[in-house]
Design brief:
The complex is a heterodimer of chains A (297) and B (302).
Chain A: H1 2-36, E1 39-40, E2 48-49, H2 53-60, H3 63-95, H4 101-114, H5 118-127, H6 133-140, H7 155-165, H8 168-179, H9 183-191, H10 196-224, H11 228-233, H12 247-256, H13 261-289
Antiparallel strand pairs in A: 1-2
Helix pairs in contact in A: 1-13, 3-7, 3-8, 3-10, 4-8, 8-10, 10-13, 12-13
Chain B: H1 9-57, H2 79-85, H3 92-123, H4 129-139, H5 144-157, H6 165-168, H7 177-189, H8 192-200, H9 205-216, H10 218-234, H11 237-242, H12 251-260, H13 267-299
Classes of the chains: A mainly alpha (297), B mainly alpha (302).
Chain lengths: 297, 302
């Protein structure tokens, strides 16, 4: 017994703050929100058990739930590939021995570090406003731009461009990945007169697959969680016409505007399952397209 | 006259051809490098243009902001800054003080609690270690929105709403798994012989943590501190939920209040305050760029 204590005491002493946090701020709340999702709870009267009612309502009758899913999925499927493509393109240009690479790297990364701030969301509102910067530029080349923030069919693009603008982090990770591709492969391909396009598809892309995969999972989870910019740009409502009703915003409003805590908890659990499912799918399919270098087939 | 024989005939001709080819290739490479630099600088300008425009607009009178694309203001309306600073019911002096207080406490909390946990995971041996480690990694994936409601109910019942406790206390309980992960990666690289030698000299694990691991991990601690500073400074959702009284507001909350009061269309002031809110982050970025970029490559943080 004494020996057991001696072996474990230091470890658990150092782990103690995390353990407390884990039970009270992560594991406990996750279970609590599962329990709450089976209740109606307005924070004034005690939770009232309603079984699966809220899930049934969500899937059978809640049209705003489907709208939120549609908006969020559209955003994820547009913004993540766009961001990764820009990130990879710029990383490839930077990779080939450019002088002053440090300056470019820093300049391109700056938007990522500022991107989630409220100040930048405010800026984006003005860039895309009816008489904003973008439309002023378009007017100079004779295009009459739409009012991006008031027109539900284009409003999502304001957020997609904002997400694309922050390609800095995946770019840095791609740069590190490109560095680790052996240069002699390209030299050999050059001798065999393989075109640059061929080299990209036959060497760069397959060898970069693990890094692409890593970026994809990370950026997808990140995109599902988008909140700050949406809140400011859509006036906290998802307007116009629910076209910016991101899932996180819908959940937030159900909880802290209408105080439907039980229903919001059900929404939170569905979000958790969606993110888990996406991550799972990414991992499951990865063995068909991601090959690690030291792996033997 | 050393290689006079070689200077004649086909060999010298071949040399000349080789020299020409190399010159042509170098010229081509120089040109392609130049093109790349032109493209990269233009693209950087295009990327940063909105930010430059905002900085310029913060100096312009309200009626000159829209429809004006220039990034060099002709007039300098310093009033935008001085009046914007006092435009809300409380002055921005208070908001900056609040933000600074929360940020400093958060950074301290993250550094202490995350390095504790990381030291346990990277260096100590105890029952169920792998189990806890797996759970810790899983929390990396959990969106904040999932734990938000029960956490709110908990803090409400503790009477912590409208104080800084819900924002700061979790950071002292290692709630940012990202930083634990970052530090574990770093601690694992440190040579184990150091711990073993210290252990033989009679050092306790606590002493080893404080006298060996922490002093050797300053780069990792710096990276965690910088990210923790930037994320907390920009944090919006948690303050939005927990802080109600304007006297407790952080800078992002104050900016949002400014947007809501926008009907008076004081865009110059709004931009002036927005620009100022970015200054601490930009300064941190410029000064600590090295740590930030290495941190991302190391861990894949955002």
């Amino acid at each position: 017994m004494k020996k057991f204590l001696q072996k474990n005491a230091p470890g658990y002493v150092f782990l103690a703050p995390w353990l407390v946090g884990f039970f009270f701020l992560a594991a406990g709340p996750i279970l609590a929100s599962l329990v709450l999702s089976f209740t109606k709870y307005d924070m004034i009267s005690p939770p009232q058990f309603v079984g699966l009612d809220q899930y049934i309502f969500m899937f059978e009758r809640d049209r705003r739930f489907y709208k939120a899913l549609q908006v969020t999925f559209s955003f994820v499927f547009l913004s993540v590939p766009a961001r990764l493509i820009v990130a990879l393109a710029i990383a490839m240009i930077l990779d080939k021995g450019i002088r002053a690479i440090g300056i470019y790297r820093a300049l391109y990364y700056l938007p990522s570090i500022l991107g989630s701030s409220i100040a930048v969301a405010i800026l984006w509102r003005q860039v895309f406003a009816g008489e904003g910067v973008l439309n002023t530029i378009l007017a100079q080349v004779g295009i009459d731009g739409p009012n991006w923030l008031a027109n539900p069919s284009v409003s999502l693009y304001t957020l997609v461009t904002l997400a694309m603008w922050q390609f800095g982090a995946p770019m840095l990770i791609f740069l590190a990945g490109l560095r680790s591709i052996p240069q002699d492969l390209y030299e050999a391909a050059e001798i065999d007169a393989a075109s640059k396009v061929r080299q990209f598809f036959a060497i760069t892309l397959p060898l970069l697959a693990p890094v692409i995969f890593f970026n994809l999972v990370l950026q997808m989870i990140d995109a599902f969680k988008t909140f700050n910019s949406v809140f400011i740009i859509s006036n906290g409502l998802g307007s116009p016409a629910d076209s910016l009703l991101f899932y996180t915003l819908y959940l937030f409003n159900e909880a802290f505007k209408f105080f439907r805590m039980g229903y919001a908890s059900a929404l939170a659990w569905v979000l958790l399952l969606i993110i888990a499912a996406f991550t799972f799918i990414a991992f499951m399919t990865s063995r068909y397209w991601v090959h690690y270098e030291n792996e033997r087939d | 006259m050393t290689d006079s024989v070689l200077d004649q005939g086909p060999i010298s001709e071949a040399r000349q051809v080789a020299r020409d080819l190399r010159a042509a290739r170098e010229k081509r490479e120089r040109r392609s490098r130049l093109l790349k630099h032109i493209f990269l600088s233009l693209f950087a300008f295009f990327m940063l243009y909105p930010l430059l425009w905002m900085v310029a607009s913060s100096f312009k009178p309200d009626n000159q902001i829209f429809g004006d694309l220039s990034i060099i203001p002709t007039t300098f309306m310093w009033q935008n800054f001085t009046e914007g600073w006092y435009a809300l019911r409380e002055s921005f002096t208070l908001f900056y003080w609040n933000s600074t207080l929360i940020t400093v406490l958060t950074v301290i909390g993250n550094l202490l609690s995350c390095s504790f946990a990381a030291y346990a995971f990277a260096r100590l041996d105890f029952t169920l270690k792998n189990f806890w480690f797996a759970l810790m990694m899983m929390t990396l994936m959990i969106p904040y929105h999932v734990v938000l409601i029960p956490q709110y109910v908990l803090f409400l019942n503790l009477g912590w709403v409208d104080t800084y406790l819900p924002l700061v206390v979790p950071k002292f309980l290692a709630s940012e798994a990202f930083f634990i992960f970052l530090m574990v990666q770093f601690f694992r690289q440190l040579p184990r012989e150091l711990d073993e030698a210290a252990m033989i000299d009679g050092c306790s694990p606590y002493k080893i943590y404080w006298a060996i691991i922490i002093p050797l991990s300053l780069p990792a601690m710096a990276t965690a501190a910088i990210f923790s500073f930037i994320w907390t400074w920009d944090d919006f959702l948690a303050p939005l939920i927990y802080l109600n009284d304007i006297a407790n507001y952080t800078v992002p909350l104050a900016l949002r209040l400014f947007v809501d009061a926008e009907s008076q269309s004081a865009f110059g002031q709004l931009f002036a305050m927005s620009v100022l809110s970015l200054v601490p982050v930009v300064v941190f970025f410029v000064v600590f760029q090295r740590f930030i970029i290495r941190g991302i490559a190391m861990s894949g943080l955002k």
